[in-house]
């Protein structure tokens, strides 16, 4: 009797927590939508004009959702997804020759050296500070070694991984909600402006996002029932972390999801398998991460562990009032005055603590950072059109991105409202936990709007249900409602 009561109690607690998480998501979306609309007005014109364009975009998206779910078979849709995704991106990189700059240039030059067998760059100041950038650098070196030094080859690989992520989103959305939701989410990912135009930039975000998204797909498909999926989860998160240092964040999100929404409401007979597979995935992640780290050290690429040697840097910069938590040349100059290691770390920690002293200023900064991170225009236009004189194209792309992003925020708000009211399976909460956690972390650390691309799959998967609900409701006389996935 106690066992049954315990299970019911755990189930009730899990349901309560899920509602709290969804409510937090709704609050996040209310502010995001408000700030995104405000920012859109800056680029589009008056509030009325912006609202009218957004209404038109909403109708267009609903009509597209109707078409792709009503008239295409699954195979036909996948073909369309690949053709649209690859075609748009290929056209962009062939017409826009974005030169590598900033960190992208540093990694590119180091990759060229590595391809020639020269690994001396691993001991310079840049890669000694940011050791985790060596993973993507060596990936670029491998591609260069095999296919040659053409920038176009690396950009084509950007396309392949980006389209691959769209396919992963299709399967994840189909599993979480239903097949139409998978189609909606993946097609929006394929036509989302920043995804397309950033393919001409040598960013590490496309490969890492693909790996993290694929790891999440293993979680929601059968991560707690399959004998081997947990190994793939840990492995993919670890390799993704080698490319972009977000692996620990995804592991923490996975553990929170597993404990609150899988283990807590489970029957006693299922708790041990869930717990052991969760622990197993975490163990694989840390073991593989250590293997990667020591491999770079033993191969002579670097003498430092595979992580940032300045753990307080992003926190210190994140509290910079002048740059609203963005990168600062002044902070860079301050840090470089001190020797790399404990001396520099203590200097950065000291400045971080000083910036925390004015509590009112810090709270005001947090609001400004949220507004910039989740409401402002994406920086992809800057990175893609850097030193390319196409102001009219840039203006058009910014306006289009603003309309798409604001529309997506609206659809996601609708989705979460319905998910709060209606009892659904809990797998979708993995992506909401990740999204909210990502937003919370960036309240404190350094922010850039291009960082939104790292969590975009979660955003689009969650909002797809809102589109599905709207188009099946508004077009009910014309649409036969698709059956939901089992358990949804």
Automatic annotation (TrEMBL):
The chain crosses the membrane at residues 20-38, 50-69, 75-94, 130-153, 159-177, 189-220, 232-261, 282-301, 403-421, 428-445, 451-471. Keywords: Cell membrane, Glycosyltransferase, Membrane, Transferase, Transmembrane, Transmembrane helix. Its main location: membrane. It is a multi-pass membrane protein. One of its GO terms (biological process) is lipopolysaccharide biosynthetic process. It is found in: Cell membrane. One of its GO terms (cellular component) is plasma membrane. InterPro entries: LipidA_mod_glycosyltrf_83 (IPR050297), RgtA/B/C-like (IPR038731). GO terms for molecular function: pentosyltransferase activity. Residues 141-284 form the Glycosyltransferase RgtA/B/C/D-like domain. This is Glycosyltransferase RgtA/B/C/D-like domain-containing protein. It comes from Cohnella pontilimi.
């Amino acid at each position: 009797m106690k066992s049954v009561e315990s299970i019911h109690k755990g189930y009730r607690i899990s349901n309560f927590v899920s509602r709290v998480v969804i409510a937090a998501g709704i609050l996040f979306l209310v502010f995001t939508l408000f700030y995104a609309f405000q920012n859109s007005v800056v680029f589009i014109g008056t509030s009325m004009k912006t609202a009218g364009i957004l209404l038109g975009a909403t109708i267009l998206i609903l009509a597209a959702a109707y078409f792709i779910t009503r008239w295409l078979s699954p195979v036909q849709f996948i073909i369309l997804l690949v053709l649209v995704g690859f075609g748009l991106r290929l056209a962009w990189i062939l017409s826009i020759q974005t030169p590598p700059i900033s960190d992208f240039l540093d990694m590119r030059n180091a990759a060229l050296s590595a391809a020639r067998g020269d690994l001396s760059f691993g001991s310079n100041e840049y890669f000694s500070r940011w050791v985790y950038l060596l993973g993507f650098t060596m990936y670029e070196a491998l591609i260069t070694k095999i296919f040659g030094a053409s920038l176009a080859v690396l950009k084509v690989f950007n396309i392949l991984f980006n389209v691959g992520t769209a396919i992963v989103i299709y399967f994840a959305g189909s599993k979480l909600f239903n097949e139409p939701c998978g189609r909606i989410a993946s097609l929006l990912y394929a036509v989302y402006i920043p995804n397309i135009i950033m393919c001409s930039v040598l960013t590490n975000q496309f490969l890492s996002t693909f790996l993290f998204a694929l790891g999440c797909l293993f979680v929601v498909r059968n991560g707690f029932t399959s004998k081997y999926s947990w190994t793939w989860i840990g492995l993919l998160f670890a390799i993704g972390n080698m490319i972009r240092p977000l692996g620990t964040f995804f592991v923490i999100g996975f553990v929170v999801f597993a404990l609150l929404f899988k283990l807590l409401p489970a029957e006693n007979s299922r708790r041990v398998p869930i717990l052991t597979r969760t622990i197993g995935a975490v163990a694989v992640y840390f073991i593989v991460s250590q293997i990667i780290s020591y491999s770079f050290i033993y191969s002579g690429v670097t003498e430092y562990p595979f992580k940032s040697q300045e753990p307080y840097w992003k926190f210190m910069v994140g509290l910079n009032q002048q740059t609203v938590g963005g990168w600062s040349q002044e902070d860079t100059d301050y840090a470089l005055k001190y020797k790399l290691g404990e001396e520099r770390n203590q200097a950065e920690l000291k400045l971080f603590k000083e910036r925390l002293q004015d509590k009112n200023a810090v709270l005001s900064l947090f609001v400004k950072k949220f507004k910039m991170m989740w409401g402002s225009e994406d920086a992809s236009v800057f990175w893609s059109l850097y030193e390319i004189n196409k102001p009219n194209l840039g203006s058009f792309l910014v306006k289009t991105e603003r309309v798409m992003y604001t529309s997506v925020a609206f659809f996601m708000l609708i989705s979460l409202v319905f998910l709060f009211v209606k009892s659904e399976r809990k797998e979708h909460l993995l992506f909401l936990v990740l999204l909210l956690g990502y937003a919370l972390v960036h309240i404190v650390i350094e922010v850039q709007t291009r960082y939104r691309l790292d969590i975009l799959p979660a955003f689009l998967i969650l909002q797809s249900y809102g589109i599905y609900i709207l188009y099946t409701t508004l077009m009910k006389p014309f649409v036969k409602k698709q059956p939901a996935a089992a358990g949804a």
